[in-house]
Amino acid sequence: MSVVTTDEVSTSAHQExxxxxxxxxNYSIKSWLLxxxxxxxxxxxxxxxxxxxxxxxLFAMLxxxxxxxxxxxxxxxxxxxxxxxxHGVIMIFFFLIPSIPATLGNFFLPIMLxxxxxxxxxxxxxxxxxxxxxxxxxLLALGTGGVDTGWTFYAPLSTQYANSQxxxxxxxxxxxxxxxxLTGLNFIATIHKMRAPGLTWFRLPLFVWxxxxxxxxxxxGTPVIAITLFLVLFERATGIGIFDPAMGGDPVLxxxxxxxxxxxxxxxxxxxxxxxxxxVIGCFSRNRVFGYEFIAFSSLAIAILGFFxxxxxxxxxxxxxxxxxxxxxxxxxxxxxxxxKVFNWTATLWGGNVSFESPMIWAFxxxxxxxxxxxxxxxxxSMGADVHLHDTYFVVAHxxxxxxxxxxxxxxxxxxxxxxxxxxxxxxxxxxxxSALLVFAGFNATFFPxxxxxxVGMPRRYHSYPEEWEALNILSTAGAMLLGSAFTFTxxxxxxxxxxxxxAKFNTWGARGxxxxxxxxxxxxxxxxxxxxxxxEAYAYTGxxxxxx
Amino acid sequence: MSDxxxxxxxxxxxxxxxxxxxxxxxxxIGMWLFLAQEAMFFGGLLCxxxxxxxxxxxxFVEGSAQLNVYMGAxxxxxxxxxxxxxAMCVYSTQVGKWxxxxxxxxxxxxxxxxxxxIKWFEYAEKWHYGLVPHLNWNPHGAHSLDDPVKGELxxxxxxxxxxxxxxxxxxxxxxxxxxxxxxxxxxxxPNMYLPVEYFGFYxxxxxxxxxxxFPLLYLIK
Amino acid sequence: xxxxEHADDHAGHFIVPPKYYIINAVVIAILMFLTIAxxxxxxxxxVNGMGYLVALLIAILKAACIVSIFMGVKWNTPLVKVFAxxxxxxxxxxxxxPMIDLASAKWELGTPYSDIGHEGENALFMDDDAVLLVDExxxxx
Lengths: 549, 221, 141
Fold this sequence. Notes:
The complex is a heterotrimer of chains A (549), B (221) and C (141). Helix content of chain A is 65%, strand content 2%. Chain A has 549 residues and is mainly α. In chain A, the strands form 2 sheets. A two-stranded antiparallel ribbon of chain A has the order 1-4. The radius of gyration of chain C is 29 Å and the shape is elongated. Chain C has 3 helices and no strands. The interface between A and C is medium-sized, with 26 and 22 residues.
């Protein structure tokens, strides 16, 4: 969209070197630790999230090595249980849920809205510190013996029978939830009240719509997991609880309360990715995103409908058949908005001037992998199929396709897309493309065999299995090693580029949008000089923009 | 008429906002979003309550009969009056009447303490009769229940729900103490009353939770 | 103390006249006594019948009074009203489905996928042979 500023647009926006930006405005540690600048907070989150990603990934490597052989040779069952639990807890609460919102969302939401910061900068900083406190608590739990209940903390195992660090881990999850709530609160207030003049709802980038929908889920769902984890904590600490079957307590109630959040949580873990993909596909097709309103409303539809489907995690847990039927029907419905998005992105490519820079390779990877993940979800939505597939590797493969093949690829897609804008440095293009391809290959090698394994009945959360499945497991482990190496490679060259990469041009990808056209590279501490006024629709690509790597 | 030394002379607008109106509207929405998520938090407990009441109706009737309706009703009135004094405190800040503001805020705090004191006596009574789950559960004591096993479930729910509410009262009391000091120092006035108003919202929210807890716990017949 | 009907501060924010607060408090107190009285009446439906509904409705009414007058939503923008009502909707989702689960637990609809409570009655569940995954003899462990 083209913009006109009320005040003078400083032409220093086009000089990269001598200007003051949010990195060099103040070098002291205190200016980082007590910053209220959403950009700095976003970068601090990025660093922390990458650390947790590596820790969670390490656990995955460990138990994949165990699974390479049919016998449980490397660790005993308890240790294995701890590894998959910690992998789940860390990846979900400390990597995926904050991933795009806390890094790219924090960074770019105010800029895309033409604002100087989020509505509540101090709350943003508080959110980061709560996240770090939660993370340290989780690491403490890890270091003092770990937890073996599964990331799902089902009662009464978690409340009464487990003798691992349930309290600390549940506390870590509880705190991470509050970090998430505060982020969502900030986003919703900012999007409602801090849009620049002329920036109506339907001129917003789809990234913003995605984060609005994500914020809604964070606000409405996370408190329920907070109270559920609180009940676990309270029972561990005092013995007073409401899930003990011996006194009439009902474990199924725990599951209802748990999944009421944890299902919408998976939409927190994909909607921001959808936002990134909309931006990247629009940019590299040089085309307006097809069906803008449909994508915008489908984000809201997913956020809303996503609250009605949690029982599909509980078909075999003892909920009534009738309830299962209702949830099955609603789950089929929730697939529709996601499908609408995929159709629209495909239509955006059609008639566009498509080019294959590294963010676009990541985006194509996303499209393929998310498609598989989403479609396999439909198998699981059907109660009849789920009877056989529940708690097998089919489920594991499904959610890894959507979470890793979907969200993680979208996360790296966004990081690669906005990296030059955020850091003022550029990574080598060949690295960006190679890592996308390596991740794609490694991912499929890891998780496609798991669909087959699940189909033939291999259960999840077991450290040993019948020999006839060993071949596929070896393939999966080999793929995991490749995947782990590819991710490590990605992080290495990104960090390398911050110090030794070449300086980025003003608009590396020739993209449109307030952050690309009216904001310096890297941005000024106050984002803009003056208040931008928006006069055109989003994605006003003419097809003739060019890349300036 | 209004005390001109109360609060800042001019409204203070943070520099990331365009103007005071944007700041006020954003902060208002922010406070409501916070309360919305608090409502969902308590909602989880209510979900458990509705579930178990549906499952074990007689247990809930019997458990509820052990609770002291008079103390509960008194607490309801105490909180109601404290809501009025809190609202009046906000009003006093808005029109710039310092002495009134301090009196109303002090009354609110005093009533909050009264609530907690009555609650303390209630809990002490439960302890005395051996009705505290796990820690002191003695269902064959003075108040023997028809179904002591499931009765423990009801009382677990009772203590967790009313305890969570009391915990929020204690937090409210802590924040109120901070506000008391700030109001004493005349930090808030007609040009800066929104913090007091938002604290008032929190206080009213805690009142609303009690409004639901009282009939649901004490009046099951 | 002079109180205008539409007292405004400098930003145009409406200041609620105190008499609204007093009247509201009286209304809520009356509702409280009403709910205590209602609990003494024996309504049809037992513990979870009409009396339950009446108690909940009165509580909702009291909450509405607090929200609209004490918290000022009566004079707020539509957005805040949407948020307040939206939360009620979301709470309803949370309450409804587990209750549906409990209420429908004993219904028997179509082909069951477990035989809990009816062991030995359905041929579908009475197969002693282990299911072989591949065409081999079962290995002795």
